[in-house]
Amino acid sequence: MNFIRMTDLDLTGKTVLIREDLNVPIKDGVVTSDARLQASLPTIKLALEKGAAVLIASHLGRPTEGVFDSAYSLAPVADYLSEKLADQIEGKVKLIADYISDAAKVQVQPGQVALLENVRFNQGEKANARDLAAHYAELADVFVMDAFGTAHRAQASTEGVTSAMKRLGKSVCAGPLLAAELDALGKALETPEKPMLAIVGGSKVSTKLEVLHSLAQLCDEIIVGGGIANTFLAAKGHSVGASLFEADLIEAAKEIMQQTSILLPDYVVVAAKEEIDFDDFTGSLTKARAQIKAVSDIGDNEMILDIAPQSAQLLAKHIAQAKTILWNGPVGVFEADNFAHGTQIIAQAVNDSAGFSIAGGGDTLAAIDKFDVAEGVSYMSTGGGAFLEFVEGKTLPAVAALALD
Q1: Contact 67, 110 (CB under 8 A)
Q2: Could you say which of 111, 299, 376, 385 is catalytic?
Protein backbone atom coordinates (compact mmCIF):
# COMPACT_ATOMS: atom_id res chain seq x y z
CA MET A 1 0.00 0.00 0.00
CA ASN A 2 1.24 3.46 -0.86
CA PHE A 3 0.90 6.15 1.79
CA ILE A 4 2.55 9.44 2.72
CA ARG A 5 5.04 9.37 5.59
CA MET A 6 5.43 12.19 8.08
CA THR A 7 9.13 12.28 7.27
CA ASP A 8 8.25 13.37 3.71
CA LEU A 9 6.21 16.43 4.71
CA ASP A 10 7.21 20.04 5.37
CA LEU A 11 5.60 20.81 8.74
CA THR A 12 7.02 24.29 9.22
CA GLY A 13 4.41 26.46 10.92
CA LYS A 14 1.74 23.74 10.59
CA THR A 15 -0.53 22.55 13.37
CA VAL A 16 -0.13 18.79 13.47
CA LEU A 17 -2.52 16.38 15.20
CA ILE A 18 -0.77 13.12 16.08
CA ARG A 19 -2.82 10.07 17.12
CA GLU A 20 -0.62 8.05 19.45
CA ASP A 21 -1.34 5.01 21.60
CA LEU A 22 -0.65 6.39 25.08
CA ASN A 23 -2.83 3.81 26.83
CA VAL A 24 -0.46 3.15 29.73
CA PRO A 25 -0.94 1.84 33.28
CA ILE A 26 -1.31 4.58 35.89
CA LYS A 27 -1.32 4.19 39.68
CA ASP A 28 -1.83 7.02 42.15
CA GLY A 29 -1.49 9.56 39.37
CA VAL A 30 1.85 8.24 38.11
CA VAL A 31 2.68 6.31 34.94
CA THR A 32 3.96 2.88 36.02
CA SER A 33 5.08 1.53 32.64
CA ASP A 34 6.26 3.94 29.96
CA ALA A 35 7.04 1.59 27.05
CA ARG A 36 4.32 3.05 24.80
CA LEU A 37 5.25 6.60 25.76
CA GLN A 38 8.89 5.95 24.95
CA ALA A 39 7.87 4.53 21.58
CA SER A 40 5.88 7.68 20.77
CA LEU A 41 8.51 10.24 21.77
CA PRO A 42 10.60 10.10 18.55
CA THR A 43 7.56 11.04 16.46
CA ILE A 44 6.65 13.96 18.74
CA LYS A 45 10.26 15.19 18.81
CA LEU A 46 10.57 14.93 15.03
CA ALA A 47 7.41 17.01 14.55
CA LEU A 48 8.90 19.69 16.82
CA GLU A 49 12.20 19.59 14.92
CA LYS A 50 10.26 20.09 11.68
CA GLY A 51 8.77 23.31 13.06
CA ALA A 52 5.26 22.11 13.89
CA ALA A 53 2.78 23.08 16.57
CA VAL A 54 1.87 19.70 18.05
CA LEU A 55 -1.44 18.35 19.30
CA ILE A 56 -1.52 14.77 20.58
CA ALA A 57 -4.61 12.56 20.85
CA SER A 58 -4.99 9.19 22.57
CA HIS A 59 -7.38 7.02 24.51
CA LEU A 60 -6.76 5.66 28.01
CA GLY A 61 -8.55 2.68 29.45
CA ARG A 62 -12.24 2.00 29.03
CA PRO A 63 -14.25 4.81 30.63
CA THR A 64 -17.97 5.19 30.04
CA GLU A 65 -18.09 7.00 26.73
CA GLY A 66 -19.24 10.59 26.95
CA VAL A 67 -18.55 10.81 30.69
CA PHE A 68 -15.48 12.42 32.26
CA ASP A 69 -13.79 10.20 34.84
CA SER A 70 -10.65 11.49 36.54
CA ALA A 71 -9.40 7.91 36.91
CA TYR A 72 -8.97 7.82 33.13
CA SER A 73 -7.59 11.32 32.67
CA LEU A 74 -4.43 11.76 30.61
CA ALA A 75 -3.11 14.31 33.12
CA PRO A 76 -0.31 11.98 34.35
CA VAL A 77 0.71 11.43 30.71
CA ALA A 78 0.90 15.21 30.19
CA ASP A 79 3.19 15.45 33.22
CA TYR A 80 5.37 12.64 31.86
CA LEU A 81 5.64 14.26 28.42
CA SER A 82 6.43 17.64 30.00
CA GLU A 83 9.43 16.08 31.70
CA LYS A 84 10.66 14.15 28.67
CA LEU A 85 10.24 17.08 26.26
CA ALA A 86 11.60 19.76 28.60
CA ASP A 87 14.67 20.38 26.40
CA GLN A 88 12.57 20.95 23.27
CA ILE A 89 9.57 22.96 24.42
CA GLU A 90 8.90 26.09 26.42
CA GLY A 91 6.77 25.51 29.48
CA LYS A 92 4.82 22.30 29.95
CA VAL A 93 2.63 20.05 27.84
CA LYS A 94 -0.84 21.52 28.33
CA LEU A 95 -3.77 19.15 28.81
CA ILE A 96 -6.80 20.44 26.88
CA ALA A 97 -10.08 19.22 28.36
CA ASP A 98 -12.54 20.91 25.96
CA TYR A 99 -11.52 20.76 22.33
CA ILE A 100 -14.87 19.78 20.83
CA SER A 101 -17.32 22.59 21.60
CA ASP A 102 -15.09 25.27 20.03
CA ALA A 103 -12.11 24.02 18.05
CA ALA A 104 -11.05 27.62 17.33
CA LYS A 105 -10.12 28.05 20.98
CA VAL A 106 -7.52 25.29 20.80
CA GLN A 107 -4.36 27.31 20.32
CA VAL A 108 -0.86 25.86 20.07
CA GLN A 109 2.17 27.56 18.59
CA PRO A 110 5.14 26.06 16.70
CA GLY A 111 7.48 24.52 19.22
CA GLN A 112 4.65 23.85 21.68
CA VAL A 113 2.92 20.56 22.55
CA ALA A 114 -0.61 20.10 23.88
CA LEU A 115 -2.33 16.85 24.80
CA LEU A 116 -6.04 16.42 24.12
CA GLU A 117 -7.94 14.79 26.98
CA ASN A 118 -8.91 11.12 26.59
CA VAL A 119 -10.78 10.73 23.28
CA ARG A 120 -13.01 8.12 24.89
CA PHE A 121 -14.62 10.87 26.95
CA ASN A 122 -16.18 12.02 23.66
CA GLN A 123 -19.58 10.61 22.72
CA GLY A 124 -19.33 8.85 19.36
CA GLU A 125 -15.61 7.98 19.50
CA LYS A 126 -16.05 4.22 19.30
CA ALA A 127 -18.90 4.46 16.80
CA ASN A 128 -16.68 6.54 14.49
CA ALA A 129 -19.23 9.36 14.49
CA ARG A 130 -18.78 11.53 11.41
CA ASP A 131 -19.46 14.80 13.26
CA LEU A 132 -16.90 14.00 15.98
CA ALA A 133 -14.29 13.10 13.37
CA ALA A 134 -15.01 16.42 11.65
CA HIS A 135 -14.36 18.24 14.95
CA TYR A 136 -10.98 16.53 15.22
CA ALA A 137 -10.17 17.53 11.63
CA GLU A 138 -10.87 21.19 12.40
CA LEU A 139 -8.06 21.23 14.94
CA ALA A 140 -5.08 20.81 12.60
CA ASP A 141 -3.51 21.27 9.19
CA VAL A 142 -1.98 17.80 9.15
CA PHE A 143 -3.10 14.51 10.73
CA VAL A 144 -0.48 11.93 11.64
CA MET A 145 -1.68 8.39 12.37
CA ASP A 146 1.02 6.85 14.54
CA ALA A 147 -0.94 4.45 16.77
CA PHE A 148 -0.54 0.97 15.29
CA GLY A 149 -2.10 -0.55 18.40
CA THR A 150 -5.44 1.09 17.52
CA ALA A 151 -5.21 0.81 13.73
CA HIS A 152 -7.57 -2.18 13.64
CA ARG A 153 -10.37 -0.06 15.11
CA ALA A 154 -12.44 2.22 12.86
CA GLN A 155 -12.99 4.99 15.40
CA ALA A 156 -13.37 8.74 15.16
CA SER A 157 -9.79 9.50 16.23
CA THR A 158 -8.25 6.89 13.92
CA GLU A 159 -10.09 6.14 10.67
CA GLY A 160 -12.75 8.85 10.98
CA VAL A 161 -10.44 11.85 11.31
CA THR A 162 -8.30 10.60 8.43
CA SER A 163 -11.30 10.53 6.12
CA ALA A 164 -12.50 13.91 7.42
CA MET A 165 -9.11 15.51 6.77
CA LYS A 166 -9.14 14.18 3.22
CA ARG A 167 -12.59 15.63 2.61
CA LEU A 168 -11.24 19.02 3.69
CA GLY A 169 -8.22 18.70 1.39
CA LYS A 170 -5.83 18.51 4.33
CA SER A 171 -2.76 16.29 4.62
CA VAL A 172 -2.78 12.86 6.26
CA CYS A 173 0.23 10.63 6.78
CA ALA A 174 1.74 7.76 8.73
CA GLY A 175 4.00 8.63 11.61
CA PRO A 176 7.43 7.00 11.95
CA LEU A 177 6.20 4.43 14.50
CA LEU A 178 3.28 3.27 12.36
CA ALA A 179 5.41 3.31 9.20
CA ALA A 180 8.06 1.18 10.90
CA GLU A 181 5.40 -1.33 11.98
CA LEU A 182 4.03 -1.59 8.45
CA ASP A 183 7.52 -1.91 6.96
CA ALA A 184 8.49 -4.67 9.40
CA LEU A 185 5.25 -6.60 9.01
CA GLY A 186 5.43 -6.23 5.25
CA LYS A 187 8.95 -7.65 5.27
CA ALA A 188 7.85 -10.59 7.42
CA LEU A 189 4.50 -11.36 5.81
CA GLU A 190 4.47 -9.99 2.25
CA THR A 191 8.05 -10.58 1.10
CA PRO A 192 9.57 -12.97 3.66
CA GLU A 193 12.97 -14.44 3.05
CA LYS A 194 12.73 -18.21 3.20
CA PRO A 195 12.73 -20.43 5.11
CA MET A 196 10.17 -18.76 7.35
CA LEU A 197 9.32 -20.00 10.84
CA ALA A 198 6.64 -18.82 13.26
CA ILE A 199 6.41 -19.34 17.00
CA VAL A 200 2.81 -19.24 18.21
CA GLY A 201 1.98 -19.67 21.87
CA GLY A 202 -1.06 -19.03 23.99
CA SER A 203 -3.71 -20.78 25.99
CA LYS A 204 -6.22 -21.56 23.24
CA VAL A 205 -6.19 -22.48 19.55
CA SER A 206 -9.55 -20.73 19.19
CA THR A 207 -7.99 -17.30 19.90
CA LYS A 208 -5.37 -17.78 17.21
CA LEU A 209 -7.04 -20.13 14.75
CA GLU A 210 -7.12 -17.57 11.92
CA VAL A 211 -3.52 -16.59 12.67
CA LEU A 212 -2.44 -20.23 12.41
CA HIS A 213 -4.35 -20.74 9.15
CA SER A 214 -2.73 -17.63 7.65
CA LEU A 215 0.75 -18.55 8.83
CA ALA A 216 0.33 -22.09 7.55
CA GLN A 217 0.16 -20.61 4.04
CA LEU A 218 3.35 -18.59 4.57
CA CYS A 219 5.59 -20.58 6.88
CA ASP A 220 7.78 -23.55 6.25
CA GLU A 221 7.53 -24.47 9.94
CA ILE A 222 5.49 -23.39 12.97
CA ILE A 223 6.45 -24.01 16.59
CA VAL A 224 3.36 -24.12 18.80
CA GLY A 225 3.43 -23.75 22.56
CA GLY A 226 1.22 -23.40 25.63
CA GLY A 227 -2.34 -24.67 25.53
CA ILE A 228 -2.23 -24.44 21.74
CA ALA A 229 0.45 -27.15 21.64
CA ASN A 230 -1.71 -29.37 23.84
CA THR A 231 -4.49 -29.37 21.26
CA PHE A 232 -2.01 -30.29 18.53
CA LEU A 233 -0.53 -33.06 20.71
CA ALA A 234 -4.05 -34.41 21.23
CA ALA A 235 -4.60 -34.23 17.47
CA LYS A 236 -1.57 -36.52 17.05
CA GLY A 237 -3.13 -39.04 19.41
CA HIS A 238 -1.29 -38.22 22.63
CA SER A 239 -3.00 -38.05 25.98
CA VAL A 240 -2.47 -34.60 27.49
CA GLY A 241 -3.71 -35.64 30.93
CA ALA A 242 -5.38 -32.79 32.83
CA SER A 243 -3.88 -30.14 30.52
CA LEU A 244 -5.92 -27.39 28.96
CA PHE A 245 -6.84 -28.25 25.37
CA GLU A 246 -9.76 -27.81 22.98
CA ALA A 247 -11.23 -31.13 21.89
CA ASP A 248 -13.59 -29.43 19.44
CA LEU A 249 -10.62 -28.01 17.50
CA ILE A 250 -8.68 -31.22 17.04
CA GLU A 251 -9.89 -31.52 13.43
CA ALA A 252 -8.84 -27.92 12.79
CA ALA A 253 -5.41 -28.73 14.20
CA LYS A 254 -5.13 -31.74 11.90
CA GLU A 255 -6.03 -29.56 8.93
CA ILE A 256 -3.29 -27.05 9.80
CA MET A 257 -0.78 -29.88 10.20
CA GLN A 258 -1.54 -30.92 6.62
CA GLN A 259 -0.72 -27.41 5.37
CA THR A 260 2.69 -26.92 6.96
CA SER A 261 5.17 -28.53 9.33
CA ILE A 262 4.03 -28.11 12.95
CA LEU A 263 6.93 -28.61 15.36
CA LEU A 264 5.91 -30.19 18.66
CA PRO A 265 8.00 -31.19 21.68
CA ASP A 266 8.78 -34.80 22.52
CA TYR A 267 9.38 -33.86 26.17
CA VAL A 268 7.41 -31.45 28.32
CA VAL A 269 7.39 -30.12 31.86
CA VAL A 270 4.34 -31.06 33.95
CA ALA A 271 2.92 -30.54 37.41
CA ALA A 272 0.23 -32.46 39.29
CA LYS A 273 -3.15 -30.77 38.97
CA GLU A 274 -3.76 -31.01 42.73
CA GLU A 275 -0.73 -28.79 43.37
CA ILE A 276 -2.22 -25.93 41.37
CA ASP A 277 -4.49 -23.25 42.80
CA PHE A 278 -6.46 -21.90 39.85
CA ASP A 279 -7.39 -18.76 41.79
CA ASP A 280 -3.66 -18.01 42.09
CA PHE A 281 -2.39 -19.89 39.07
CA THR A 282 1.07 -18.37 38.62
CA GLY A 283 1.64 -18.02 42.34
CA SER A 284 0.88 -21.67 43.01
CA LEU A 285 3.20 -22.74 40.19
CA THR A 286 6.18 -21.19 41.99
CA LYS A 287 5.71 -23.93 44.60
CA ALA A 288 4.56 -26.75 42.32
CA ARG A 289 6.98 -29.62 41.61
CA ALA A 290 8.09 -29.50 37.96
CA GLN A 291 8.71 -32.86 36.30
CA ILE A 292 10.01 -33.63 32.82
CA LYS A 293 7.96 -36.22 31.02
CA ALA A 294 7.90 -37.71 27.52
CA VAL A 295 4.64 -36.74 25.83
CA SER A 296 3.80 -40.45 25.70
CA ASP A 297 4.02 -40.76 29.50
CA ILE A 298 1.82 -37.92 30.77
CA GLY A 299 -0.35 -38.98 33.69
CA ASP A 300 -4.08 -38.40 33.88
CA ASN A 301 -3.68 -35.88 36.73
CA GLU A 302 -0.76 -33.98 35.19
CA MET A 303 -0.81 -30.64 33.38
CA ILE A 304 1.66 -29.63 30.67
CA LEU A 305 3.09 -26.22 31.60
CA ASP A 306 6.28 -25.88 29.55
CA ILE A 307 8.47 -27.41 26.86
CA ALA A 308 11.31 -29.44 28.39
CA PRO A 309 14.83 -28.07 27.83
CA GLN A 310 15.94 -30.97 25.62
CA SER A 311 12.99 -30.43 23.27
CA ALA A 312 13.38 -26.65 23.36
CA GLN A 313 17.02 -27.03 22.32
CA LEU A 314 15.97 -29.10 19.30
CA LEU A 315 13.41 -26.44 18.36
CA ALA A 316 16.10 -23.79 18.76
CA LYS A 317 18.04 -25.47 15.94
CA HIS A 318 15.10 -24.91 13.60
CA ILE A 319 15.00 -21.26 14.65
CA ALA A 320 18.70 -20.93 13.87
CA GLN A 321 18.07 -22.11 10.30
CA ALA A 322 15.19 -19.71 9.61
CA LYS A 323 15.73 -16.48 7.68
CA THR A 324 12.39 -14.94 8.76
CA ILE A 325 10.95 -15.48 12.24
CA LEU A 326 7.59 -14.30 13.56
CA TRP A 327 7.00 -14.75 17.29
CA ASN A 328 3.67 -14.35 19.07
CA GLY A 329 3.22 -15.97 22.46
CA PRO A 330 5.38 -17.80 25.03
CA VAL A 331 5.64 -21.60 24.98
CA GLY A 332 5.05 -22.09 28.71
CA VAL A 333 4.00 -20.35 31.91
CA PHE A 334 7.20 -18.29 31.86
CA GLU A 335 6.07 -16.05 34.73
CA ALA A 336 6.88 -18.95 37.09
CA ASP A 337 10.62 -19.63 36.97
CA ASN A 338 10.32 -23.42 37.24
CA PHE A 339 8.19 -23.42 34.07
CA ALA A 340 10.11 -20.73 32.18
CA HIS A 341 13.06 -22.64 30.72
CA GLY A 342 11.37 -23.53 27.43
CA THR A 343 10.43 -19.93 26.68
CA GLN A 344 13.89 -18.78 27.76
CA ILE A 345 15.60 -21.17 25.34
CA ILE A 346 13.27 -20.13 22.52
CA ALA A 347 13.85 -16.45 23.32
CA GLN A 348 17.61 -16.91 23.30
CA ALA A 349 17.41 -18.73 19.98
CA VAL A 350 15.51 -15.81 18.43
CA ASN A 351 18.08 -13.45 19.94
CA ASP A 352 20.96 -15.44 18.44
CA SER A 353 19.37 -15.93 15.03
CA ALA A 354 20.89 -14.22 12.00
CA GLY A 355 17.43 -14.05 10.39
CA PHE A 356 14.95 -11.17 10.43
CA SER A 357 12.72 -11.51 13.49
CA ILE A 358 9.54 -9.71 14.47
CA ALA A 359 7.78 -10.20 17.80
CA GLY A 360 4.38 -9.00 18.94
CA GLY A 361 1.90 -9.41 21.77
CA GLY A 362 2.03 -8.37 25.41
CA ASP A 363 3.17 -11.71 26.81
CA THR A 364 5.84 -12.02 24.12
CA LEU A 365 7.25 -8.60 24.90
CA ALA A 366 7.15 -9.42 28.62
CA ALA A 367 9.16 -12.59 27.95
CA ILE A 368 11.66 -10.63 25.83
CA ASP A 369 12.06 -8.21 28.72
CA LYS A 370 12.38 -10.96 31.34
CA PHE A 371 15.08 -12.81 29.42
CA ASP A 372 16.82 -9.63 28.24
CA VAL A 373 16.89 -10.46 24.54
CA ALA A 374 15.48 -7.24 23.07
CA GLU A 375 18.71 -6.35 21.28
CA GLY A 376 18.57 -9.55 19.26
CA VAL A 377 14.99 -9.12 18.02
CA SER A 378 14.90 -7.23 14.72
CA TYR A 379 11.55 -5.55 15.42
CA MET A 380 9.12 -5.57 18.36
CA SER A 381 5.57 -4.62 17.44
CA THR A 382 3.71 -2.24 19.75
CA GLY A 383 0.34 -3.59 18.59
CA GLY A 384 -1.61 -6.40 20.24
CA GLY A 385 -4.89 -6.99 18.45
CA ALA A 386 -3.70 -5.00 15.45
CA PHE A 387 -0.62 -7.21 15.15
CA LEU A 388 -2.73 -10.37 15.13
CA GLU A 389 -5.26 -8.98 12.66
CA PHE A 390 -2.48 -7.92 10.30
CA VAL A 391 -1.00 -11.44 10.50
CA GLU A 392 -4.46 -12.85 9.77
CA GLY A 393 -4.52 -10.78 6.59
CA LYS A 394 -7.34 -8.50 7.71
CA THR A 395 -7.61 -4.89 6.59
CA LEU A 396 -6.75 -2.39 9.33
CA PRO A 397 -9.26 0.46 8.82
CA ALA A 398 -7.01 3.26 10.10
CA VAL A 399 -4.20 2.09 7.82
CA ALA A 400 -6.43 1.62 4.79
CA ALA A 401 -7.70 5.19 5.23
CA LEU A 402 -4.14 6.50 4.70
CA ALA A 403 -3.87 4.92 1.24
CA LEU A 404 -3.15 7.31 -1.57
CA ASP A 405 -6.19 7.66 -3.84
Answers
A1: no
A2: 385
